[in-house]
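Long-time lurker, first post. I've been practising inverse folding by hand and with some scripts of my own, and I keep getting stuck on stretches where the structure tokens seem ambiguous. Below is the full token string for one chain I'm working on. Before anyone asks, I'm not after the true native sequence, just a reasonable design that respects the backbone. If someone could post their per-position residues I'd love to compare against what I wrote down in my notebook.
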């Protein structure tokens, strides 16, 4: 009788387990060992490398991942390996309760293919019934000197042997000098900046300028602003010199100073083009700038903003601001000795702001603006300049000397960033000779002293 009872009991136990349905989650969020998988290898020839990460199921039940796939399946650079299968997409993967799976990712790069992006980007997408998550993929597509969140701590020289790629920004530390040789190309990833606490020396030439730009290589991006952040010279950064540099397609080209009013940085800017900036070309906060033969074109707010005071000299500068991406309302050149930022009022002395033999031209009615706190120094002068102006008061002849207004400079080809003067330009021979002697050669190396008077702007027209 007892034996019969145990047989019946075992039968019911087997029946219960046989009838029990295994519950599998179809919704929920996975956890990952990383949020971005970065391949550290910089290829000099065509090659492949593999990296991996872990996907965790945090639940007490199995979970069904409906799809695991590459975000850009058409991109041939990345391949997935899941459970030994090389693929770009898998369906209906079950991760056991409180367990995990490995995802292996292989990338193949041909750095000699000019169509390969500087930074190869993709993602792996994980889809459950109601949730989409991803892990970013980052690889280096060209043979470059890679600086990933780098700090330069010793005096360094960059040469033009191959490009430099700045990813996650870069710092030039205090009391350290970075010297960049002619012809060097610097590519800066989206959101990244160059922060200078030490000293930056750029030694470009007319034939081989140093170029700072975003890392998108497709022709569409040649003149698109906002692709990277800026170059910042912070307090205590001294002896900086930029000569024959092209700085383009960022948010701010050159920022001199921060909200600190102490240890004001200084920068000498000669023969530099700053082009296509979302916000400002040159943006100074109580800085010290000496600039000659500078071209600043196409900025969403300011071509040149000199704020919170400072000390500035701009000779033979061309400002050309025909901004076509949105409705620009601010003047191209603005000078103040004060600033409100984060609800805090900052103010400092404007020791001087000198503009001589300059062109300040744009598609707004007024391309020059001021903001003065009467309790602090506010010294400025414009001499032999052409200014697009309608309502700004420029009647004080001690501050505005030999000013021309609302003339078309007649650049040779504005749309292709050629700001040389046409033969019929009214800017020809309108400069002050004494200022011209201070900058005797133009951006191209042509003499300003060979005819009756220098031309306005960065270029001398040679007839």
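-- Answer (accepted) --
I ran through it position by position. Result:
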């Amino acid at each position: 009788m007892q034996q019969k009872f145990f047989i019946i009991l075992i039968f019911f136990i087997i029946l219960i387990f046989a009838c029990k349905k295994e519950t599998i989650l179809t919704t929920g969020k996975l956890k990952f060992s990383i949020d971005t998988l970065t391949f550290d290898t910089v290829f000099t020839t065509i090659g492949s490398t593999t990296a991996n990460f872990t996907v965790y199921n945090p639940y007490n039940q199995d979970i069904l991942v409906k799809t695991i796939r590459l975000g850009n399946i058409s991109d041939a650079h990345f391949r997935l390996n899941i459970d030994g299968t090389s693929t770009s997409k898998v369906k209906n993967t079950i991760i056991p309760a409180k367990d995990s799976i490995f995802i292996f990712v292989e990338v193949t790069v041909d750095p000699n293919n000019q169509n390969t992006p500087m930074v190869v980007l993709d993602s792996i997408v994980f889809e459950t019934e109601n949730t989409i998550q991803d892990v970013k993929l980052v690889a280096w597509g060209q043979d470059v000197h890679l600086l990933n969140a780098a700090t330069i701590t010793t005096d360094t020289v960059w040469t033009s042997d191959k490009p430099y790629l700045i990813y996650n920004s870069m710092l030039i530390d205090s009391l350290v000098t970075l010297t960049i040789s002619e012809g060097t190309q610097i590519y800066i990833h989206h959101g990244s900046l160059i922060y200078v606490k030490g000293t930056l020396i750029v030694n470009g030439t007319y034939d081989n300028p140093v170029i700072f730009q975003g890392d998108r290589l497709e022709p569409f991006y040649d003149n698109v602003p906002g692709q990277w952040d800026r170059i910042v010279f912070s307090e205590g950064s001294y002896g900086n010199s930029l000569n024959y540099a092209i700085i383009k397609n960022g948010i701010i080209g050159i920022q001199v100073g921060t909200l600190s009013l102490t240890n004001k940085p200084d920068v000498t800017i000669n023969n530099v083009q700053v082009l296509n900036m979302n916000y400002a070309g040159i943006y100074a906060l109580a800085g010290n700038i000496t600039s000659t033969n500078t071209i600043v074109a196409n900025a969403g707010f300011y071509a040149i903003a000199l704020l919170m005071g400072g000390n500035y000299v701009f000779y033979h500068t061309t400002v050309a601001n025909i901004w076509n991406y949105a409705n620009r309302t601010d003047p191209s050149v603005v000078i103040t000795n004060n600033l409100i930022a984060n609800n805090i009022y900052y103010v400092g002395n404007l020791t001087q702001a000198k503009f001589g033999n300059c062109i300040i031209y744009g598609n707004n009615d007024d391309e020059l603006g001021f903001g003065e706190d009467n309790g602090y120094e506010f010294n400025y002068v414009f001499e032999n300049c052409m200014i697009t102006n309608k309502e700004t008061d420029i009647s004080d002849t001690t501050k505005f000397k030999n000013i021309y207004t609302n003339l078309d400079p007649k650049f040779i080809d504005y749309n292709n960033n050629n700001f040389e003067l046409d033969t019929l330009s009214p800017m020809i021979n309108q400069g002050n000779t004494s200022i011209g002697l201070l900058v005797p050669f133009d951006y191209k190396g042509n003499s300003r002293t060979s005819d009756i008077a220098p031309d306005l702007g960065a270029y001398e027209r040679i007839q």
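A couple of notes from the structure itself: The chain has two helices and 41 strands. Helices lie at 2-19, 433-438. Happy to go over any region you disagree with.
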